[in-house]
Amino acid sequence: MKFDFIYQRHSVRQFTGEQIPEETIKELIKAAVQAPSGKNQQNWHFVVVTDKSKIAEIARLVEAKNAELSTYLKDEAKIKAFRGTVGYHTVFKGAPVLILVYAGPYETIADMLLADGMMPASETEQYARANPGIQNIAAAMENLLLAAASSGYGTCWMTGPTYAAEEITRYVGFAKDGYHLAAMTPLGVPANDKITATPRKPVEDVMTILR
To answer: Does 135 reside within a domain?
Structure first.
């Protein structure tokens, strides 16, 4: 059994300068929001940035935040390692489109238990581990990436740059109560057609069948 549309997806970090029609972007977002969503909350919002100067400024914000956060680290090796990630966290600056994916509120049983205060807070944590609100966002994100790949476009699922979420959100002017930046992806035509998917663990290592 083959699922070619899945194997076409891989992380792309270099793009041509070719622009993507707005109608195409809308179709990709439409595919994204067909994802399953707990309680049909659809607690997602996509901010699409197509202005190159704005994308460059977002990259600058990430660089500045990276430098700032590194001052709170003591170990030189950790500082060097963290500063070294900034190049990976700004690869989107070479893409014609940047999609910021926001996650909205999603009440769980853990929230309700914590609010009512009858169960110790330390015990309620176990009921929050599944984090369905973020699972909704991840499902939509994967739909987006698969739809883009099957249409010949490249993407790269990124969460690293979200340490600059506050600065980025303020800069783009996005304001929706309770929403926070959860992930982002560049979108564009890959600079080459080589698929560079990293090796995956054998299925036997990640699957348990109960007979």
So the answer is: yes
